[in-house]
Design goal:
With about 260 residues, the protein is an alpha+beta fold. It folds into two domains: about 170 residues, 3-Layer(aba) Sandwich (Rossmann fold); about 80 residues, ACT domain (Alpha-Beta Plaits), CATH 3.30.70. It has six helices and 18 strands. A hairpin with a 2-residue loop joins strand 2 and strand 3. The longest helix is centred in the N-terminal third of the chain and has 15 residues. The N terminus is likely disordered.
C-alpha cells in the first residue's frame, strides 16, 4: 500500500550540496533527479537501528544512503553498525567514511539492505545491474531480513525491461555463444543482446567478479518473470541475471510531490 508523505523527511533539513532544503519553503521547489534520490535515501536510513548488519548498495542513489549512515555513526546516533558492501566501489566508499565492514562468510544473515534499482514494476519486481554489480547485490540482498529499495519516480515501469537493458552476467569463455543463446531465448519479445563495453566501446566491461555482462533489450513484455528467470539460469555460462523477483520488502519512491512508501 502506498503511503504519501510530505516532500521533506522528518524535522531535519536535508543538505543538498552547498544549500539546504527546508520544509517551510513558501513555494514548490523544482528538484533535480539527484535531489530526489537523496530524499529517498535519507528516508530509508530512518529504518536503520544500532547493532544492525547492513547490506550497503551500489549506485548513485545508494551512495547517498551510505553517506548518511556514516554521518549518523560519526554523530553517535548509530552505533555498532556492520556493513557488507555490494561492490568494490561501495567498499571503497565505506572504508573512506569509516564504516566497519564484513562479509557474508562472517555474517550470513543481514538485518537490512538499502539499494537503488533501475526499474520497479507494480509488483515491486526489480531490474538491477545496469551499474554492473548485480551478482554481489543479489547475493547480499537475498540474505537480508528486510530489503529497502530507493528510487526516484523515473524508475517506475509498466513491466520489466520497459526502460532499457536487463543485464545478464556471463563467464568470459565463449561469451558470444552465451549472448546468442540469450537473444534466441527471448526472440518472441524482439530481444537484442549486446555485450557491455566501456570507454566508448573500446574495452569490454568487466565486473568485480571478472565476468562480462550481456545486456538484453526487449521490444515487448517478456511475460512470466519466474519462467524467464529459470530459463536464463538454465543456460550454461550464465552466472546471474538482473531480475530481482519477490525480493524487495519496501520501495521508497521520491517524486516532486513527496515520498511514497510501497510495502510488499
Amino acid at each position: 500500500m502506498a503511503i504519501p508523505c510530505p516532500p521533506f523527511i522528518g524535522s531535519e533539513k536535508l543538505s543538498i550540496e552547498s544549500g539546504a532544503m527546508s520544509p517551510s519553503s513558501p513555494s514548490p521547489l523544482i528538484l533535480t533527479q539527484d535531489e530526489l534520490k537523496k530524499i529517498a535515501a535519507y528516508k530509508a536510513v530512518e529504518f536503520v537501528q544500532s547493532g544492525m548488519v547492513l547490506g550497503l548498495g551500489t549506485g548513485s542513489t545508494a551512495k547517498h544512503a551510505v553517506d548518511r549512515i556514516a554521518d549518523l555513526l560519526h554523530q553517535g546516533k548509530l552505533k555498532n553498525i556492520i556493513g557488507i558492501p555490494t561492490s568494490t566501489k561501495t567498499h571503497q566508499q565505506a572504508v573512506s567514511l569509516g564504516i566497519p565492514l564484513s562479509d557474508l562468510d562472517s555474517h550470513p544473515v543481514v538485518d537490512l539492505a538499502i539499494d537503488g534499482a533501475d526499474e520497479v514494476d507494480s509488483n515491486l519486481n526489480l531490474v538491477k545491474g545496469r551499474g554492473g554489480s548485480l551478482l554481489r547485490e543479489k547475493m547480499i540482498e537475498s540474505a537480508c531480513k528486510k530489503f529497502i529499495v530507493i528510487v526516484d519516480q523515473s524508475k517506475l515501469v509498466a513491466h520489466v525491461g520497459a526502460s532499457g537493458a536487463m543485464p545478464v552476467e556471463v563467464v568470459p569463455f565463449c561469451w558470444k555463444f552465451s549472448q546468442d543463446r540469450l537473444q534466441n531465448l527471448f526472440h518472441y519479445a524482439g530481444c537484442v543482446a549486446k555485450l557491455r563495453t566501456d570507454n566508448g566501446g573500446e574495452k569490454i566491461f568487466v565486473t568485480d567478479n571478472g565476468n562480462y555482462i550481456v545486456d538484453l533489450f526487449f521490444k515487448k513484455d517478456i511475460g512470466d518473470l519466474k519462467v524467464a528467470s529459470d530459463a536464463i539460469l538454465r543456460l550454461a555460462g550464465v552466472v546471474e541475471h538482473g531480475m530481482f523477483l519477490d525480493m524487495a520488502t519496501t520501495v521508497i519512491v521520491a517524486g516532486e510531490l513527496g515520498i511514497t512508501i510501497k510495502d510488499k
